[in-house]
Each structure stands twice: as C-alpha cells, then as structure tokens.
Design goal:
about 400 residues; alpha/beta; 2 domains; eight-stranded parallel sheet; about 20% helix
Length: about 400
C-alpha cells in the first residue's frame, strides 16, 4: 500500500509554517506524520500545496505507474495520527470527518485520476463529496488549526513507547522513573543532568547531547543530533534535529536547525526551522485575566482560540533580538528580524524588519546573504533549494507585507 499526502484549503490555518513545508511534515510527538508513515509504508509521496513551489505531476504519475503496489491511500496532511489509517477498509470510498476529506483508498487507475484532479485544482484538493461514496469517521481526525498540535503533543510523545528499542543504560546519576526514560545508544547524556519522567516519558534520539545541569521533564522528545545545553526543558515539548536549546521551554514544538542557545522562556509555542532566539527572549503564554487568547495568522485572519495558554508561532529563518518580549498569541512570519524595546506587536508579516518601533521590508539580498551564512555554518546540503524557495516566498508575501507596513 502506498501513501500519498495532499493539502486542502485549510492549509492557511497553519501559516506561516505551512508556507515552508506541508502540514504532514510538521514535527509532532516523536516525528512527523510522513516519518511515521514511512516506518509502515516505505512508498510514501508528498503532493505539496501550491504555496510550496512547482509540483511535478508527471514525475508523481510515473512513480505511481511504476509502483509494484496496487493500492494507494490519499491522506490529508492535517491528519492527527497515522493510526487512523487502520479504519480505511473499503476501496473507492472517501473517509470524512466534519465534512472534510481525511483519506481515499484507490486503485492504481483511480490514483492516477485523482492526481489529475489535484493538478486541476492547483495543488489544493477539496473534492465535491456529494457525488462520492463516503464513510464518516467517529472522532475528529484532522487538525483544524495549528495550535491544536500543542494540546496533543503530550499524548503524541507518550504513544512512541511501543515503537522504541535498543536503548543504552541511562548514564545520568539522577533519573526519576527509570522505566519511562528511553535513550538511543549513540546519545550522550551528562551524569550531571536530571531526567524526570514522573509526569511523562522522555525519549532521547540518536546522537543527541544533554549537557550538565540540564533538567528534563517528560513528556519530552529530543531528536537526532539535537543539543540541550542546560535549563529546564519538557512538559510536552519536542525538539527537532540539529536544534540547540537552553533556558526554560514548556509544551512547545521546535523544528530542525533552530538555535535557542541562551536563557529565556519559550512556552506553548511552535517555532520553525533556522530560527535564532536571542538571549532573554520571552514568550508570554498566559493573559493576566486568564481569558482565551486571540491570534492572527495572516493580515485578514484573526482567530479566538479556546486556549488560555498560547505563546508564539514563529516562521522559518526569523530572528529575535536580545531581550525580545513576545505577547501571548504572537505570530512572526518567515524571514523576520524582530527588534525594538518593550512588548512587541502580535503580528509580523513575513520578511519584515522591526517591531515595536516600526516596520520596514527586509532587504531581500541582505536576508539571503544572512540565510546563506546560517546554513553554511551547519554544513547544510540543501541550501540552494531553500534559497530558491525563500525568493519565491518573498514575492508571494509582498502584498500582505506592504499593506501592513503602510497602515
């Protein structure tokens, strides 16, 4: 069986991070849905949304035609858990949740027809379900908004226990609930680190490093090659590959290659890749009156969440200056440089420079020069592709940015 992930019109509810990757590539728990799918279904294809660049439909069609498999499942990128696929049992049936398509099991011929449908829809697929055979799934199976992933991250981490194996003896001299701590053999743990799994499991992946005087509290996932340099980290947190963190982090998801090397607080936040968090940056995640938090994901999209705790959503390649103060429910777009005194505004369009003292458009040449330096320092091999994508996103987001700056 082959899995094919697609995007639908609700992709905008996951901006700015969904401008840079499909929702199925978001880190949650101990990996993305695509990573989890490939453990069970090695033949996995991604059809990126239209904002993510050129889609080579001919190449995808060839891959389907050459596949030795005869069964294909189209899966919505917003899926909460790959385990839902166990409920997919009938071919040529649309499985739906709250009137949204969750999955379609198709033959090879039907898969090629569906691919053509997606192409004609511009890469964002929302088929008319009224003329199709449908089956309603019982529980909510798709994420509606990006912040819902934070609520689920505790459980997502805990569910990994059954799939982990080959652990080393835990070297830390201070471990609470030893049976809930899982460390891959190549990870390096200082004997002066504290691993507290009384409230949830701790997973430390291959080649990760935990420095002295780090306090880790479960549920927590530390990905491959990630480093925790100290501080208090955990309580529903996932740290992406090659990221370096320090200070206090609670119930947050930090994607790959992000740097938070210094003290400060990140709480109930989702942070993209290649982000640099300046020393003593603080994300407020609770209002003084304990009311529900509102958040703006685009210039014309403001939402009232059902949460009293929500920090910041920070897009890829953005940076915060020393001592930056971010309000609860702040959105920072892609490629921003956040500077200025006092509490920052709650919305930063992509590729903006400034903050509480005013905004201007980030000079594209200077931004790309900095991004090149950042990626080269990590010896990142995909830099050329990333830079092409960033150029494209700069153009796509220009009108939103200029409208915001001119207000």
């Amino acid at each position: 069986m082959q899995i094919i992930f697609f995007e639908d019109k609700k992709i905008a509810n996951f901006f700015p991070l969904a401008m840079y990757r499909t929702v199925a590539e978001f880190l949650r728990g101990t990996g993305s849905p695509i990573q989890h799918a490939m453990r069970h279904f090695p033949y996995t294809i991604i059809i990126p949304g239209h904002a993510l660049g050129h889609i080579d439909y001919e190449e995808i069609a060839k891959e389907i035609e050459k596949s030795p498999l005869t069964s294909f499942i189209f899966v919505n990128s917003r899926i909460r858990s790959i385990s839902i696929l166990k409920q997919i049992q009938e071919r040529d049936t649309c499985y739906v949740s709250d009137n949204d398509l969750v999955a379609l099991w198709a033959s090879k011929e039907k898969a090629l027809d569906t691919l053509q449908e997606i192409k004609q829809s511009g890469g964002i697929w929302d088929p008319d379900l009224s003329c199709r055979k449908t089956h309603a799934l019982a529980n909510p199976t798709l994420y509606e908004y990006i912040w819902q992933m934070l609520e689920d991250n505790y459980c997502e981490i805990e569910e990994a226990e059954s799939s982990w194996s080959e652990f080393q003896a835990q070297p830390s001299s201070s471990i609470m609930r030893n049976e809930k701590v899982f460390i891959k053999k190549t990870a390096k743990i200082s004997p002066f680190a504290v691993l507290d799994a009384r409230r949830g499991s701790i997973f430390i992946d291959e080649f990760a490093e935990i420095a002295p005087f780090s306090y880790l509290e479960g549920p927590l996932y530390v990905s491959q090659y990630a480093k925790i340099q100290g501080g208090k980290v955990g309580k529903g947190t996932s740290i992406g590959s090659y990221s370096i963190v320090n200070g206090e982090i609670e119930n947050s998801i930090i994607f790959d290659y992000t740097n938070k090397y210094h003290d400060g607080f990140i709480g109930h936040s989702i942070i993209g890749s290649w982000v640099n968090i300046g020393a003593q940056t603080v994300t407020s995640d609770l209002k003084n009156n304990y009311s529900q938090i509102r958040i703006q994901l685009a210039s014309n999209r403001i939402y009232t969440t059902n949460l009293i705790k929500l920090g910041s959503i920070i897009g890829d390649h953005s940076k915060t200056a020393i001592g930056t103060l971010l309000n609860s429910g702040t959105t920072v777009g892609i490629g921003c440089n956040v500077i200025g005194n006092g509490l920052q505004p709650k919305y930063f369009p992509s590729f903006c420079w400034g903050g509480s003292e005013g905004f201007k458009e980030y000079d594209l040449a200077k931004f790309l020069e900095t991004a090149t330096k950042v990626m080269s320092r990590r010896d990142y091999k995909g830099a050329k592709k990333e830079l092409r994508h960033l150029r494209r996103l700069f153009g796509i987001t220009r009108s939103d940015r200029q409208d915001f700056i001119q207000r």
